Amino acid sequence: MSSAVAPEGNQGKWGKLLQFLADRFYDVEALREYLFQKQMSKIHQKNRSFTYIKEQYGPYVAAAYFILKQGGAVKFQGKEWIRSNGRGHYSLEFLNFQAIPVEAVDASDCAINYQGLDNLLALKELQSLWLQRCPHVDDWCLSRLYQLADSLQELSLAGCPRISERGLACLHHLQNLRRLDISDLPAVSSPGLTRILVEEMLPNCEVLGAEWTEGLKLGPEKQSQDTASPIPA
User: Fold this and answer.
1) Rounded to two decimals, what is the model's pTM?
2) Residue 63 and which of 53, 96, 108, 206 are 20 to 30 A apart at CA?
3) Which phi and psi (to 5°) does residue 162 adopt?
4) What are the residues facing 181 on neighbouring strands?
């Protein structure tokens, strides 16, 4: 008897949901805009500054807390990497590292954006920063990294869909960089040429990414001598 009633209950729930959506949204565009705004609000919430933690524990712990909440990992000087487990849990031992600088941050695949960088720019001893495949890291974000110029030696931007040549040009401030990964950047129109220009801009840095010929329009090859030569007698 109960098994026969269950489908009707489910249909009733779906009917109420559809009616709610129909009453609230008059077309698909309105629904799309609503979902977009909801997503942006969630991203904004993830990138807020943890002022109360910074005031109580200092900038190093506050930055670590921000990255760990995002699902990333941090390394304090002389300590092992700290990262969350599969359930998003992590050790709170780092709360005792108030006087220990953060030397490396792995924010790969995190939702960090321009606003969220506020939590990292106070890390004046930061040497390595991985921002691989971060969907909200864009050219404006790169324009802020000059504040880490004195310490930053390794930077990975691989797979960031919103980074273009304009953003990479902002990295000329980072003259202490020794390793830079700019591979797989879909918004860069000429990856090969861009790599050459970045290498010129940062002569002491190993630049990883596309081969110099990738994206370049080469002229037609000349016909081989064999093809042009007459048939031997």
Assistant:
1) 0.76
2) 206
3) -110, 10
4) 156, 208
